[in-house]
UniProtKB/TrEMBL annotation:
InterPro entries for the chain: NiFe-Hase_large
Lineage: Bacteria, Pseudomonadati, Pseudomonadota, Betaproteobacteria, Burkholderiales
Protein name as catalogued: HupK protein
Provenance organism: Paraburkholderia dinghuensis
């Protein structure tokens, strides 16, 4: 079976001649769920591993938990989280090495880029990040108080530190962040989420829906959304390097619906499954994109009212920070 092409996320900025008024996003899910419906539950792991491109280890783990919960079978808790954590760290660094310099500035040395292929263990990733990301061990970086991040960004000299320094210097719109409680929301609305599997994943609306894919686990404030997001990404990478990540996979059940989850480079990924007579009756993959760039996300508030000269480059930065693994395009609808 051939791999399915990753869909392109489209952000549309609409406004008058002066500034942005509204922000809309569109990112339709891959038709994987339709391939699974009617199949035997035992066939799902092989199908997913050959059809999904992004976050394959996380996808397979979330699916295993969802199916176990749906079948009321023992949870696969004994599964090694290491491949999922390494996948998240490697994917984060790959995007930072390839995509981020064009948007955030600067350039990696050729030998730094070449090292990515050899980052095949937590130790190798931690060593790379100590040299080229944090300028110190990840464990030491995590002990720094958050209010000291500006000093680190100004003095560390690494390219990610310079990115954060540049964002902090440009920050003009402070933002409050809160935990999103994605799992609680999905659990409470499992039937609705499961049966909406063919909808545009960013079309979910309503004040009760999560504003992001659990990118923050505590309330806080940031100078602006871009700097808050990069700080969150740095913290997540540091925890992975220092082996301090929280539990990365799990499962739960709502009625006859199994729910499985895993943390990937983009945030919390969720799978939902209903199994009848050993076959998939309904299946839904909820990507982090659904929350990170949905109608209730933090993105519209960050861009609304900005002049076009500021809004378009900021939209590029936010798209990469919110969903670093998905290709995207930005469209402008400007009228007099």
């Amino acid at each position: 079976m051939t791999l399915l092409q990753v869909p392109v996320l489209t952000l549309t900025l609409r406004g008058d001649a002066e500034c942005v008024h509204t922000v809309a996003s569109q990112w339709s899910p891959l038709p994987v769920e339709r391939l699974l419906t009617g199949r035997g539950a035992a066939e799902v792991p092989a199908l997913l591993s050959t059809t999904l491109v992004l976050c394959r280890h996380a996808q397979c783990a979330a699916s295993a938990h969802a199916l176990a919960a749906a079948l009321e079978a023992p949870s696969p808790d004994a599964a090694d989280p290491e491949p999922i954590e390494l996948e998240a760290a490697r994917e984060t660094l790959r995007r930072w090495l390839i995509d981020f310099p064009a948007v955030f500035g600067g350039a990696w040395a050729k030998d730094e880029i070449a090292q990515w292929a050899r980052l095949d263990s937590r130790a190798h990733i931690a060593d790379f990040c100590e040299q080229h990301v944090f300028g110190m061990s990840a464990a030491a970086w995590l002990t720094r108080p958050e209010f000291d991040l500006a000093n680190w960004a100004a003095s560390a000299g690494t390219l990610p530190a310079r990115w954060l320094h540049g964002l902090l210097e440009r920050a003009e719109r402070p933002v409050s962040v809160m935990p999103a409680n994605v799992l609680r929301n999905v659990h409470e609305n499992a039937e609705t989420v499961l049966l909406a599997r063919d909808a545009d994943v960013t079309a979910t609306s309503g004040s009760g829906w999560p504003a992001h894919a659990d990118l923050w686990d505590a309330p806080g404030r940031g100078p602006d959304l871009a700097s808050a997001l990069l700080t969150s990404r740095l913290q997540h990478l540091a925890r992975l390097c220092a082996n301090r990540a929280s539990r990365v996979t799990g499962g739960l059940r709502r009625g006859d619906i199994g729910i499985g989850w895993a943390y990937c480079a983009r945030g919390l990924l969720v799978h939902l499954a209903r199994v009848e007579d050993g076959r998939i009756a309904a299946y839904r993959i909820v990507p982090p994109t659904r929350w990170n760039l949905g109608r209730t996300s933090l993105l519209p508030d960050a861009l609304r009212g900005l002049r076009w000269s500021a809004a378009q480059p900021l939209a590029q930065r936010l798209a990469l920070l919110l969903d670093p693994c998905a290709p995207y395009r930005i469209e402008v609808d400007r009228h007099a």
